[in-house]
Amino acid sequence: MIQYCNFTYEFRLLFLGFIVTLALTSSVPDQFINAGSLFAMMTLGMYHGSYDVVELNKLFPRLVRRFFAYLSYLVIALVLLFLSWISPIIFFTLFFFESVFHFGYGDSLIQTKWRHLESIARGLLPFTVSGTFHPEEVKPFFSLLLKSNLDVEIFTAILPYLLIVNIIAFALLVFYQKQTKVIAEIVLIAFCFYFLKPYPAFTLYFVLFHTFRHLREKNEDSSILIHKTLFNPLAWFATLLVALPLIIFGLTDEKLSLEIKSYPFFAFAALTFPHGLLNYFKKNI
Question: What pTM did the predictor assign?
Fold first, then answer.
């Protein structure tokens, strides 16, 4: 018998966002959906990453240690950026596995030995579902990091096989754990990436689910969190300075529109590594 549990706050947010976006996609042009996605990334999503500053300050209260912590954070990101320049395939492979681990482990609810299985079932979803059912639409994003069309084709062809691994991990999780919260969340995330195009699907998942779970784990009150994110002057300034001009030009320039779709991922790809390491360190100290 599956244990009954109330749905999580993040589940309710993602479900509402999924229903609204699904309704909009039938009548609103893709350019405006992508513009809205970028807008959400630059506001709500920005606070997610900026919280690393708070975490570093808490972990390293002494000024000298804090300085070296900041320096290490930036050096890791810069080293990975340099690696992306000299060997895109190695960088992308590291980015893929780190992203799977970060999203899977960071969003997991199970605290027992089954947590790693849940991490696999969750972490692979953004890649495997989008790559299997929307392969032509994920290729432009992969090509921005991989550069080689052959590498893009090979990686895209691998994703359906990884989806099988994804399904097996989920089936084992259902059989051995039977937790409604976990099952419902994984199914809803899979629905998002199946029914929606990759860019709005990832935006919904990242902004409404991953970001809020990440911040709520820091004991942030939901109402305070929403106020901080929606009325964050830095986020709004960055949006007005960077996002809106890109959105305006992207609505009329197809080539630039592709750059807009991928714009947040450049920053995420570079910062995912130190961000993931920081969160893993925080959870295990």
Answer: 0.81
